[in-house]
Write a sequence for this structure.
């Protein structure tokens, strides 16, 4: 009786694995900007509210204890009762209060941290960001590797990366094409969730552009 033939030499055995056990590659989700803690505005507002509330509470407690109200509160109540709504100081005060309120609302509904660019998330439990200056430094180093580039200045924004290079030899169009190719690949390699649009300007030394 002949023995069953084994796998040929050099073959790699493949083990069947149920489909439900195969881990799926997480999908990159749409990333939003990082939210700022707003510690300084929150601390200033909290201190002002505590001071104002404490002053009114002390004065109301003093009145309840059959002591005369503070002069500033009596003057404030008299001014609010006597001044008409079309008075200049009333309108100025209302405008300042409205401006401060709008500023606080703007801080509450906007994320802040404009200098941090969100990166794509390969895993749902990992989130990272890249500073604009760091991204600009990477692009500048890649630009300096191009033959003919004497100096380069890079400014990375949320939606656009401005690159201004000075070329001291080679044709400007050739350098521009090389910068487009290299920097486009460099931006893709940064792993940003929303890669900025590349804008390249090349000029000769001594010329403004």
């Amino acid at each position: 009786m002949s023995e069953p033939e084994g796998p040929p030499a050099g073959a790699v055995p493949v083990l069947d694995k149920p489909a439900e056990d195969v881990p799926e590659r997480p999908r990159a989700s749409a990333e939003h900007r990082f939210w700022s803690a707003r510690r300084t505005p929150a601390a200033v507002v909290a201190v002002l509210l505590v001071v104002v509330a404490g002053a009114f509470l002390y004065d109301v407690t003093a009145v309840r204890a059959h002591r005369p109200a503070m002069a500033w509160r009596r003057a404030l109540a008299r001014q609010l009762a006597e001044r008409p709504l079309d008075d200049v100081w009333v309108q100025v005060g209302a405008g300042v209060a409205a401006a401060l309120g709008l500023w606080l609302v703007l801080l509450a509904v906007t994320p802040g941290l404009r200098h941090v660019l969100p990166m794509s998330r390969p895993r749902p439990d990992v989130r990272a960001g890249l500073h604009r200056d760091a991204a600009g430094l990477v692009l500048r180093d890649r630009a300096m590797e191009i033959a003919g580039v004497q100096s380069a200045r890079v400014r990375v924004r949320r939606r656009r990366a401005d690159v201004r290079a000075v070329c001291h030899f080679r044709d400007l169009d050739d350098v521009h094409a090389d910068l487009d190719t290299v920097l486009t690949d460099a931006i893709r390699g940064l792993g940003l969730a929303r890669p900025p649009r590349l804008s390249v300007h090349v000029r000769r030394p001594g010329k403004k552009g």
About this structure: Residues 39-64 form the longest helix (26 residues). Strands lie at 116-118, 129-131, 149-156, 160-167, 197-203. The chain is about 45% helix and 15% strand.
